[in-house]
Description:
Low-confidence stretches: 11-27, 30-34
Mean pLDDT: 92
Oligomer: single chain
Amino acid sequence: xxxxxxxxxxxxxxxxxxxxxxxxxxxxxxxxxxxxxxxxxxxxxxxxxxxxxxxxxxxxxxxxxxxxxxxxxxxxxxxxxxxxxxxxxxxxxxxxxxxxxxxxxxxxxxxxxxxxxxxxxxxxxxxxxxxxxxxxxxxxxxxxxxxxxxxxxxxxxxxxxxxxxxxxxxxxxxxxxxxxxxxxxxxxxxxxxxxxxxxxxxxxxxxxxxxxxxxxxxxxxxxxxxxxxxxxxxxxxxxxxxxxxxxxxxxxxxxxxxxxxxxxxxxxxxxxxxxxxxxxxxxxxxxxxxxxxxxxxxxxxxxxxxxxxxxxxxxxxxxxxxxxxxxxxxxxxxxxxxxxxxxxxxxxxxxxxxxxxxxxxxxxxxxxxxxxxxxxxxxxxxxxxxxx
Length: 388
């Protein structure tokens, strides 16, 4: 049955550290599509960046990755075996002199956390890392985010408004007898119970990303999900359900992580500084360009999913809905300073204050003295690039 949501968590990232440290082997970058005959445009990355810029995502291709797929031009090549898409890295329709490879996460990497994957394979330059996952991995697999892809995280708790007509928030849900199904180990669930919004006796950590249990409960259970994914899927693509869901973003309850921020290994912030200074603004602009015209990137995403053929189903209509919801819900938005992709240091510190005690209680080591600057930096952003 089709899996809907990511089963990764900050605690899982911490648990993966030992496995990474016991044995690492590079997977090697996929040979990119041919770029011969292309002239290098206004942005030349060839002298400072790797010949192939490898970006590791946290899940199967989907519209949330639209900005990355906008880096690829019409010569992109899908490798179904390696679950990657590669081709000339483009900026405003011009070749940058290097290639880019976008790798799928989740099942493609055995559900490993992205920090673990980045340290397993040194070919990876950038990866998608949540702030809480970065904190969990900071002791032995440190990463530093260089661009925020979401101003607000898409994670949500959803419920059936027919069963619970008086529930309008997660806090309201906590006052009912509803079971709340989730991926065991999800750090934000510890926050929701610790802050009193939900009760621990409501929780069921057996969610496996499939809709069967939710449907069988016939509306009596709530469930975690992505605001850009599950509400549309349950209403439009699951005939056994076929009606609207209500939900609230976890971010709107006071859990302000930066979801799937584009991050580098912390040591590479200095060693790859020349590359990142030129590359990060290209990714910024590609993300802005995606929302102006998402059709080509979404078509490539849908095609990649079809060719990967790993149980993830992603129709074009779902991609279109996700693109629209990212903007409508304020998920993809400019930072507080008006720049797309920027980080607020105070906000990162707030995440640390929430997450560190949770992780420590679970036995995950968080280094003393870890600073917001070590977790995220605006150093490489172009402050002039913004969504309209």
